[in-house]
Amino acid sequence: MTDQNRRLTAAETKGLRTAKELEGHLAWLDTFTPAALGVLAIASGIYTYLGVTSLLEDTGAMSFFAAVAYSIAVSVGIFVFWSYMLRLLPSMRSAAGFIGLTVSTMVGSLAIIAMSSWLNAAALAGSAAVEQHLDLTVRDYQNALEQAHDIALSAQALEREVRRAREAFEALAEQERSGELSGTAGEGAVYRVLRQKTEELESLETQIAEQQPLIDDAFEQGNEILGRMRALTVAPGPVEQRSVAFSEESVRLAGVISNLNQYSVALLVARAAADLPVSVVLPELDGRTSRVRDAQSTTIGSVLDALDQRSKTLGQAASEVLEMEPPQETAYNPISSADAVIRYASSFVPSWAGAIAIDLLPGVLVFVLAVTQAAIRSGRDGLSIEETLTLSDLKAAINAMRDVEVSLGSADAEISRRLQMNKPSKDSDSEEAD
Description:
Elements: H1 2-29, H2 33-55, H3 61-88, H4 95-156, H5 158-178, H6 189-234, H7 239-263, H8 266-275, H9 290-322, H10 337-343, H11 349-380, H12 385-388, H13 391-433
Helix pairs in contact: 1-11, 2-3, 2-4, 2-11, 3-4, 3-11, 4-6, 4-7, 4-10, 4-11, 5-6, 5-9, 6-7, 6-9, 8-9
């Protein structure tokens, strides 16, 4: 039993020494902790001010004072909140109190992030986030331009189908002129039908060919605008001014893309293909004999069948172009630095981490202090006051007792002196009475 008591006493002694050592460290840390907390709060307020100014459109005196007032409120709030937590949470002994203050700490941390951290991130990475927004917008416009150009070129490829159909009917017309088709040479009814369709297809082919220079010019102009937009994305200077010029260029590029969409001849070819067999103007059969007229009628029927087949071929080719997914409508929407930081938060994780850390770093100190205070209490629990006294404490107590004794001695001497001063006056009063 005695050995057990000795081991327990040794453990208590070790715990007491640890508690005393930790108390000494805390006493030293308390000398600069409030100043450090104030520096963090002021730094957060400065970045909050920069973030607020990026949101305010007006640059007058009222906006300046509003931003200053908000940043001061944030600094004071952060300092007061963490000062409360640094003092109160580590002192909680009950589980309910500790859990309650821990929940309060979390809620307060979320409030600090909501009122300050995102503005700090806007100040740290706002310009870069807006530049990323510009860069992504340029990519969207580039994709839309290339897609509109591809559709227009695909429609231009229909010219080959139209040319092939036109050459086929032109060859049939020459055969009819030489008498190889209906058996009667000349430029009769069959020849006129074939020439009619040949001229329609030739006119369509000419219209398609006329669109090619317009498409090339529009695509070149679009690339030039894209080049200027890319230059604005990385150009030096305030991003707000570059955004204005960027917006103007985006309007021009949107017009170019719209023109490219209109230059597509796929719809024109589809309509011409549908009209090809139904728009035939049948001439009067001019054969001299009924046999010749019957031959002309039969040949015209075959021509109409060929027209119908060509119509389906052209229509199918045009439909394939029309079914191509049109370019997505792209429009540049100006965005503030704070909104850009939130939208592209995943691209600026380090900035967000720094913005949140400057506000929530005292939270780590709170839990470090709570653990330290728990260790101090653990080293002192179960010990009486006499057992926790150290040599320095005893010396201080002895000196205090001596001071008390000196004070009491001085008081007694003063009382005696006053009594001595009052005693003669009482004796003289007695003699006068006699």
